[in-house]
Amino acid sequence: MTSQVSSPAEQAGGTDSAVVGEQRTAAGEGGSGKDVRRLDRVIIRFAGDSGDGMQLTGDRFTSETATFGNDLSTLPNFPAEIRAPAGTLPGVSSFQLHFADHDILTPGDAPDVLVAMNPAALKANIADVPRGAEIIVNTDEFTKRAMAKVGYAASPLEDGSLDGYSVHPVPLTTLTVEALKEFELSRKEAERSKNMFALGLLSWMYHRPTEGTERFLKQKFAKKPEIMKANLAAFHAGWNFGETTEDFAVSYEIAPAASAFPTGTYRNISGNLALAYGLIAASQQADLPLYLGSYPITPASDILHELSRHKNFGVRTFQAEDEIAGIGAALGAAFGGALAVTTTSGPGVALKSETIGLAVSLELPLLVVDIQRGGPSTGLPTKTEQADLLQAMYGRNGEAPVPVVAPRTPADCFDAALEAARIAVTYRTPVFLLSDGYLANGSEPWRIPELDELPDLRTQFASGPNHTLDDGTEVFWPYKRDAETLARPWAVPGTPGLEHRIGGIEKQDGSGNISYDPANHDFMVRTRQAKVDGIKVPDIEADDPSGTATTLVLGWGSTYGPITAAVRRLRGAGERIAQAHLRHLNPFPRNLGEVLRRYDKVVIPEMNLGQLATLIRARYLVDAHSYNQVNGMPFKAEQLATALKEAIDG
Q1: DSSP string of 268-286?
Q2: Segment 462-473, tens digit of pLDDT
Q3: What are the phi and psi torsion angles at 13 (to 5°)?
Q4: What whole-number distance in Å separates Cα of residue 61 and Cα of residue 199?
Q5: Gap between the Cα atoms of 457 and 586, Å rounded
Q6: How far apart are CA 172 and CA 285, in angstroms?
């Protein structure tokens, strides 16, 4: 979905606090006469069984919110099991959406509204819900058996435990079945549409557009017209229920975030989708065919799914039998002159490590996309983490340096893919692109760039001899280097006169012949390292409005949103604190040491046990302080703000 936003500049200093503005009634405007309250932002969490369609519900609500023009950020959260036992805590799936009339950075710390489709959803999420928040519960599912399954001895709807909340008991299942009685559906089939009833109700509560969801349902179930009509009927019934019931006396408006965005055409986009689009754009800008050799793995599989749809752009996707075959095929495609990519997560990186080392030795452009998740081993497949940094840096035998690039937001995955491709084709090297599950599945508005804003990534293939022997013979040397980049020539197989050896054994400088010479090996190791060290990356800039801050918060990857929100809160409270964020983790920006030494304290929040902090301490001898979390969830802004305040005062 796209929407037009016209504004000269981004609004400064967006907040995470809700403000209740004017209140009016809808009477006289074709409404029901109910109060309409204006908010500046709201956080909604849909939660239910993994078969209740919460991800689809949240995705549809998000799409309509993007179309409306709000700024938004999402956090899908779902179990790793294909189908966890129904009604159990491990089977709870949720989708949180934060949307606002101003610039926001995170999915929000705590939901203002919780939609709980069953007792398990309520119990799994109630600890996150602040007192006074609204809770919409599907009372039909609060049976003795269902409550006992999650440890409720008595109904939380009756024992007073929810007295501090604004609870709306709604028999969602019964109302849905009643709304669909005219259709020839079994009760079980009709019950499946209760998520659309909930979506209709929330769409009424927050004045969301409905056309996009109606169009989506018509397309999705075009071959099943009875199911399509039933879902539409349930959606409309939910809307009408909100309009007519006395339990919902107030609806809410959140104005479009026009002042938060530069002028342009926007769409809602997830990190994996943005990354896929970035890879396609890179191949077009490089004038190279895009080849993906991949093995399905959560949370990277969506990139394979998306790229497989774009054969019209010259994209070729290969779903291999395992991780090793996937990267082997990709490296072969790089040798053949393609922009080659392999996608995976941490466990797959471990399997691909030898071939990544081979790519380092062959000095061929290859993008290794690692969508990080909780580990070790299989770990937490559907939860997020930042614990593959040291693996990307050093997880290979021998001295095998690889550049590392990390996006900071879902939309930034597009630009990060272009940057990783630039480095790979310019310097003839494999490049790690470190995203994570939070970015991959989360979404936000993305301004669709104009073509003239994209970088020119075209590169020249070798076309003939490049070296003259002592006897005057002109030959092709595959390891003769560009003086500025130290990149070797890229020779497409089959080009007459460019025949050369290839393999995993150490190469002789220049000729590329097999070499066991100690001095040559030392030279080649140092040259490959010098090539990575010499990659041109932008200087890092510290955001320090006062110019007098003594504490710097340094982040990388997806911690950008929570860190920035926390820093805004502290500045709003009068604290002087600086912030800097790394996109390039190898090599570091050349001015990073200078920036770090300006501040008395450096704090590095990470979703690991301190991997960037370890690198910073070792490289710059700076006493960086770690603030770490490895619970499979992103940082909360309030949590970070508290920790940073302690660091400032400490």
Answers
A1: EEEHHHHHHHHHHHHHHHH
A2: 999 999 999 999
A3: 65, 45
A4: 7
A5: 20
A6: 51
Bridge partner list, 445 = 268
In three-state secondary structure terms, 509 is: coil
Pair 407, 413: CB distance under 8 Å: yes
311 beta partners: none
pLDDT band at 25 (very low <50, low <70, confident <90, very high): low
Query: Which one-letter amino acid corresponds to residue 635?
Result: F
Contacts of 215 (CB under 8 A, 6+ apart): none
- Express each pLDDT in 567-617 by its tens digit: 999 999 999 999 999 999 999 999 999 999 999 999 999 999 999 999 999
CB atoms within 10 A of CB 650: 9
Give the separation between CA 281 and CA 286, rounded to whole angstroms. 8
User: CA quadruple 467, 469, 471, 473: dihedral positive or negative?
Assistant: negative
Neighbouring C-beta atoms of residue 499, cutoff 10 Å: 11
The count of residues in the chain is 650
Residue 579: strand, helix, or coil: strand
Per-residue pLDDT for 1 more than 50?
no
Of 548, 540, 649, the C-alpha closest to 598 is 548
Distance separating alpha carbons of residues 255 and 40, to the nearest angstrom: 7
> How far, in whole angstroms, is CA 169 from its chain's centroid?
34
Q: Which among 328, 393, 340, 357 has a CA at the least distance from the CA of 504? A: 357
3-state helix, strand, coil in the chain (%, to 5): 35, 20, 40
**How far is Cα 63 from Cα 115, in angstroms, rounded to an integer?**
18
Residues 301 and 344: their CA atoms lie apart, in Å, by: 8
* Mean pLDDT of the 629-633 span: 97
Q: Strand order of the sheet with strand 366-372?
A: 315-319, 290-294, 339-344, 366-372, 430-436, 404-405, 584-586
